[in-house]
Every structure is written in C-alpha cells, then in structure tokens.
Write a structure and sequence with these properties.
Immunoglobulin-like; 2 helices
Length: 199
C-alpha cells in the first residue's frame, strides 16, 4: 500500500468517527429564601447513563469520637461498604431504621469486623441507642456526578458527560421529599451557573 493511499484512508476514517465531546463542569449556587448561602448541601445529577456509570467507593467510614458521628453527613455512591470505627472509651450501639437500609451494630468498641453495604440509593438516618444526641446521615447516590456546597453556597461538579439529567439537591434541614428540588437540565460545554433557592 502506498503512503499516499494510506494517508487518504486515515483521513477518511477521521471523518467517519464521531467527534469527541469533552466532559463539562456544572456550578450550582444555593441560597436560602433569605438570600444567605446554603452550606454543605449535596448536589447531584441523575440519569439512566449516570446510574450505569456508578462504581462503589473504595473506602468509607463514619467514626465515633467524643460521642459524635464524624462526618455528620457521608455521601457515597450506591454499593459502597461503610465501616463504623468507635474511637471512644465508651461503647456505642449504631442503628438505622431507614427504608433504604436497616441495621444494628450492637454495643461495641473498636471497629466491627463486617462493614455495612448500602446497596440502595436514598438517605439513611443513623443514631446511637445509648447516646440520643448522636445523629448522622448517609446519602447514597445512584450517580457518580455529585458535589457539596462550600461556605459560599457554591457546588462544583466536574467531568460530567454532556446529556440530559435531573439536577437534585439534598440538605439535612429539608424534612420533606417535596422540599427536595428536582430540575431537568441539559449539560453541555456552555453551562451557566445554576441558581437554586431552598425553602
């Protein structure tokens, strides 16, 4: 095959291949109805393609220290296993009666042998049967595209493939599913900052 013919074939192949569409960045600005920024809200994008792209996180922990769950809110992809190390000198009894995951780790110190796997998306509220003031949330997402808002109320989602999604927001103060926004959005290379006001 001549060099000229080879170049011609390579040029033709380039025209036949679909153009590569770069991943995009989405910025979401969250505010209270008063205009103040909403800190530590979970912002995520849902779609069938996003669900298919989910892979469990390699490690996830909720530590008990000074009779407090740390972190108070843990955000993980569906299928992630979570361990609950107890670093206190007192025993704890961790439990959840939430619909997405019900479990109990009865009175213990140290780290339980078996982690808890969260197979279903949704929110699990956690408590300690010994210390009523201890509470935490595990936010299990059916998407790899998520972020949390900073002190300015800004959440940045990077490396999002272009396409159609539902933009959703969760915060621990939103007590009703009706208060959780679900907005249709098309992600492309020219997305402007999305403004969302929470009740």
């Amino acid at each position: 095959m001549s060099l000229k013919l080879l170049r011609a074939l390579l040029t033709a192949a380039c025209f036949l291949l679909p153009p590569l569409t770069p991943a995009a960045q989405l910025q979401v600005q969250l505010q209270h109805s008063s205009g103040k920024p909403v800190t530590d809200a979970v912002v995520f994008l849902e779609s069938a393609a996003a669900s298919a792209a989910v892979t469990p996180a390699a490690t996830a922990n909720i530590i008990q220290r000074n009779t407090t769950f740390m972190p108070e809110v843990l955000v993980i992809p569906r299928g992630t296993a979570v361990t609950f190390p107890n670093e206190d000198t007192v025993r704890h009894h961790v439990y959840s009666f939430s619909a997405i995951k019900q479990f109990e780790i009865k009175l213990y110190v140290g780290t339980p042998t078996e982690p808890v796997v969260f197979e279903q998306s949704g929110v699990a509220a956690l408590g300690c049967n010994i210390h009523d003031h201890m509470i935490a949330w595990v936010v299990v997402l059916d998407t790899p595209y998520y972020s949390r808002s900073n002190s300015d109320g800004l959440a940045v989602l990077n490396d999002v493939p272009p396409g159609d999604y539902s933009l959703r927001v969760w915060h621990k103060t939103l007590l009703s599913a009706a208060d959780v926004p679900r907005l249709p959005i098309t992600i492309n290379a020219t997305n402007a900052v999305q403004q969302i006001q929470l009740k």
